[in-house]
Amino acid sequence: MSSYDNLMNNIEQFKHTYYSDNKKNLFFKKNQKMELASKISEQFDIDILIQQTIHIVRDTNCIYINYPLFKIFANPDNYRKIIDHVLACLKNCLEKYGEFECHFNLSSFTISAAERYKDIIEMFCKECLKGETRYGPKVTKLYIYHSPGMIENLTNIFLHLIDPHVRTRIVLCGKEDSDTLINKLLN
Question: By the 8 A CB rule, do 61 and 99 touch?
Fold first, then answer.
């Protein structure tokens, strides 16, 4: 079993225990999800969680960001640490390749997730994808895998945060092709 699989199994066991001890809310889930994310980031090594979630694909200029893992531990208390890790990855890619690609796995991303993570999405866009940053002009492609069905709604919410130059480089990948494309990228 890989270290990633082992981590995910341990997190799933922790979540199961949490929901056994705290009845899972059917309504008002946002606060409960954030509380669980905070507890997970306290229980597990936050640096390992971040490194497993956001990393440079070996021997490439591609930065992979895995939302399904991100949503398990991301909360306002660690947003700055997450963004700093992204910036370090961008810096490493620029030093080695002079440009970079971002690959986002948005499997299970929803409108409520967009609202829940609005602050960190804005931080990411402001610090990484604006034209006046050193990073915005250096992005060659921005791939969005498992492109949510409500992408147009999300676009209306966040597009103003992304530099027009970067907008032209966005590639939306449908759900049917995404897993194959992600596997090809990572292997």
Answer: yes
d(CA 40, CA 11): 7
Residue type, 52: Q
The answer to whether 72 touches 37, Cβ cutoff 8 Å, is yes
User: Residues 8-58: pLDDT tens digits?
Assistant: 999 999 999 999 999 888 776 888 999 999 999 999 999 999 999 999 999
**Cβ–Cβ under 8 Å, residues 18 and 36:** yes
Domain ranges for the chain: 3-186
46 exposure class (CB count in 10 Å sphere: 0-12, 13-18, 19+): middle
Distance, in Å, from the CA atom of 131 to the CA atom of 164, rounded to the nearest integer, reads 8
Q: Considering the domain 3-186 in this protein, what is its CATH number?
A: 3.40.525.10
